[in-house]
């Protein structure tokens, strides 16, 4: 049976999924990303894991490898200056992989673009020609689909909505600028908000029972679910900023649907209810009540691998 | 010889241009838009002017009509709720025109999209696959090209960068919301800035010699050209806001070039110099020094007509 490898490279771990054409994950393997100081050695390990797997599974035939990675560039096949990876500078991913596995097509894109492909082919966006996926995780990523095509832009780096600026004098971002959406609506952005709120507000809160340095976005979600006022206000604050910037996104490409994905989305209605309110409030009249805001139809654990696999199984 | 009509519908006047395939404007006629209270009567007049022209010019054969209009929708062929036109609600432009001129193809889009087409085929964007045009006039419009295609979005209303929000608590916009880019960087936005600066600043300025209610963006440009400090600061303020929002636009679709067009652009380097500074300052690292910021290659008076003509002469 023909299968592809969908590889999700994360800062901590890398998952290699064996995926059939229908998007079933037949097997998956894990490699620690962080323990490799050199990219070349890391990719040699990945190639090795793949070769060992297919030697043991002669029923499968490898047709191609799709890779989703932070700052992965579809056009060049390189990972370029990814702040969340150890390896510096430009890493020629497709070239390196093809060196280890000659004759196998290798395609690379960034993780959020891969998620958009996954949403299209294995999630909720079947038949959708214009949509956006926003990933709210450690950072904030985005994949844009326009006219049934992924938007790569002139340089392959389009779709960085997480780095649009909410407040030019706002929070310092990992990118070196101030006030990026990511600094407010990523998991770590919400934790920053929690620390600010806890410091500036005297009310009691379930969050005060947690060591301030250890609060996570999940803690804020759990406290909000229990009706904790301060935690609910943190979600309201987050939803307002995200709602404004998503309304801006609509004014660029006018998608029919925006899908929300990633750890912060696990809060469910606690996030979605205020987000829909603010999104519609800040939307330009001509778009009002036309643009759906939904959670992704992808399983959190499968999305990146399926998206990477879709790079080979489909083109967009 | 085969020709097309490129029609530019503005709030005050409408220009009908007779355009050949190479983008030469062979003739042009003007109709007052504002004097028509009813859209149907207006379009009957337009059809009449066209018929009279072609009766008198048997050397020309009319192949099609392209129309650029505020809130013109490519998909529906309707003008929908255009705030700068007298006619309310939905106006079925292509249907009405085809009623008056049976057998002639009629295509409609909004004025900024038409400008993008004009830039591509008759301006500076030949061969460019990913670019944006920003029109700084009475309002702020934008046309986006991605993967060599105009971005219409799911509903035909994509590309409203003038209505992305700079400051959610900022200036009241004609769209009913607050802090839209248009309220700061349109010609009238600059005049608002001038009035604020003149009221809050005690310095002398050439602008104080003009009746406060009569100051125009052109006056600010002329004063700045003479070295007037306050006028230069108004441009600096305008350029900063535009620079931030254009940096945001890049994070969506990553164009290779952004073209600036419209009355405010007539200020030339007085606008462009600070704009380039702020744009590069607020650009995400991965885009720095890659995205050109240029004035449109279209003549101010021809752009809209050529863009509308390009709707028929070319598809994008």
Overall pLDDT level of chain A:
94
Q: Would you give the CATH topology of the largest domain in chain A?
A: Nucleotidyltransferase, domain 5
Question: Looking across the biggest beta sheet of chain A, what order are the strands in?
Answer: 3-2-1-4-7
Number of strands of chain A: 12
Content-based structural category of chain A: alpha/beta
CATH architecture annotation of the largest domain in chain A: 2-Layer Sandwich
Largest interface: A-B, 44 and 43 residues
Count helical runs of chain A: 9
User: Could you state the CATH homologous superfamily of the largest domain in chain A?
Assistant: ATPase, nucleotide binding domain
Q: Spans of chain A with pLDDT under 50 lasting ≥5 residues?
A: none
CATH class of the largest domain in chain A: Alpha Beta
Q: Could you tell me the strand content of chain A as a percent range?
A: 15-25%
Largest sheet, strands/sense/barrel of chain A: 5 strands, mixed
């Amino acid at each position: 049976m023909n299968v592809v490898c969908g590889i999700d490279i994360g800062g901590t771990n890398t998952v290699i999924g064996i995926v059939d054409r229908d998007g079933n994950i037949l097997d998956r393997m894990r490699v620690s990303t962080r323990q490799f100081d050199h990219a070349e050695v890391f990719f040699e390990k990945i190639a090795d894991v793949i070769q060992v797997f297919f030697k043991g599974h002669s029923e499968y035939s490898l047709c191609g490898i799709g890779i989703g990675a932070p700052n992965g560039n579809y056009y060049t096949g390189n990972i370029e200056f990814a702040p969340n990876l150890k390896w510096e500078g430009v890493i020629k991913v497709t070239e390196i992989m093809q060196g280890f596995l000659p004759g196998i097509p290798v395609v690379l894109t960034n993780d959020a673009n891969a998620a958009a492909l996954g949403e299209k082919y294995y999630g909720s966006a079947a038949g959708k020609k214009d949509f956006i996926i926003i990933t709210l995780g450690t950072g904030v990523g985005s994949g844009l689909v326009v006219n049934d095509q992924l938007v790569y832009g002139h340089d392959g780096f389009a779709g960085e909505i997480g780095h649009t600026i909410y407040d030019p004098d706002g929070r310092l971002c990992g990118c070196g600028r101030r006030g990026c959406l990511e600094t407010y609506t990523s998991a770590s952005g919400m934790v920053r908000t929690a620390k600010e709120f806890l410091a500036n507000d005297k009310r009691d809160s379930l969050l005060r029972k947690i060591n301030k340095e250890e609060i996570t976005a999940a803690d804020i979600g759990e406290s909000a679910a229990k009706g904790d006022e301060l935690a609910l206000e943190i979600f309201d604050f987050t939803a307002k900023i995200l709602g404004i910037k998503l309304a801006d996104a609509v004014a660029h490409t006018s998608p029919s649907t925006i899908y929300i994905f990633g750890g912060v989305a696990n809060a469910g209605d606690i996030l979605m209810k205020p987000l829909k309110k603010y999104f519609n409030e800040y939307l330009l009249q001509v778009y009002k009540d036309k643009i759906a805001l939904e959670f992704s139809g992808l399983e959190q654990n499968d999305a990146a691998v399926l998206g990477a696999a879709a790079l080979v199984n489909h083109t967009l």
